[in-house]
Amino acid sequence: MDLIAEGVTQAFWLLVKGDRGIFQIALLTLKVSGLATLISLAIGVPLGTAFALGRFRGHDAVASIVNTGMGLPPVVVGLWVSIMLWRYGPLGSLRLMYTPTAMVIAQTLIALPIITGLTMSGIGQLDPGIRVQILSLGATRWQLIWLLVREARLAILAAIMAGFGRVIAEVGASMMVGGNVVGQTRVLTTATSMEVGRGNFGTAIALSLILMGLTLAITSWLTHLQQKGRTTVQ
Q1: pTM of the prediction?
Q2: CATH number of the domain within which 97 lies
């Protein structure tokens, strides 16, 4: 209990005093995870929509791969991104290893299957009669897709929350490709892991509370949008 009280107290004073190092770590955490989520959203929603509406040879196999990717271990992603970006790897000349960009790439690969899979599921569960009704009103194919995405917006918001929650809490891949370099690639999860390793449980608890606070704030905002959308639908 003393450790918990110490961690809560330390988190409070770190925030009140405006600790520069903590805010730098928290800001980088939001930048990396936020950008990875946005990239995954930009790619995953069109892919999920295409997989839900399209029927092609190997469709079920592709869907199985996407669903498997939703549970892909972050350390596996970190391993392969490290291999690709390592000095002597295929993309080593880009010198992205141990940079925030490498972390964004890894986190994007983690969130992408989640957003794609949940989007595919959300659009696939829509009443087929909606498509017929929209087409009967003279809508083009692109208008049909846009209206279906709007109809499935609650599921897509849930996909965004799931993807963001997965990457902001991720530590393995971020540690492997980012290196936890102070002032450059250290984020809240890797900093917490490091402090635990050092035996600084009070600082680790403080960092974890800040991480949970950020996650709660973002997901609460997304939940508000989701519930507002649900009210509009009703």
Answers
A1: 0.88
A2: 1.10.3720.10
